[in-house]
TrEMBL record:
Protein species of origin: Nakaseomyces bracarensis
Pfam families: ATP-synt_DE_N (PF02823), ATPD_C_fung (PF21334)
Record localization: Mitochondrion inner membrane
UniProt key word Lyase: no
Protein name as it appears in the record: ATP synthase subunit delta, mitochondrial
Keywords assigned by UniProt, alphabetized: ATP synthesis, CF(1), Hydrogen ion transport, Ion transport, Membrane, Mitochondrion, Mitochondrion inner membrane, Transit peptide, Transport
Positions of the ATP synthase F1 complex delta/epsilon subunit N-terminal domain: 23-95
Residues of the F1F0-ATP synthase subunit delta C-terminal domain: 109-148
Amino acid sequence: MFRLVTRSVVARRGYADAAKAGLKLRFSLPHETLFNGEEVTQVNLPAKSGTIGVLADHVPTVEQLTPGVVEIVGANDTKKYFVSGGFAAVQPDSTLCVTAVEAFPLESFSPESVRSLLAEAEKNSKSTDARTAGIASVQLDVLEKLQAVLK
């Protein structure tokens, strides 16, 4: 007679365990690599599904990024980049790959310049030319989110 023995495997992860392990970040643009596998503590992303925080051992996932701030928390400092969109993929080996068309350090923006560009985009959004109005609509979305994070 055979007896069936089952074993259950329980996965457990605590915040402190994940923070110790380290998250490897690859943050790339078409013309530049900002981070190439550097270990960071946490990355906060403006995802289409909402703002998400990624630590080591995060569940593998792919997220579409919306205009907003990518916040990179290191051991000694925090860096913030404004992206207009992109994608982020968390790999099973605690590697986060962020790909964006453009990313700029948040401190490189002038609130006055953003206000000026926003006024121009609002004016162009009322254009009778469909192409001009369409471009202005996208600009408005990005500039409004940028203005909100600069306040």
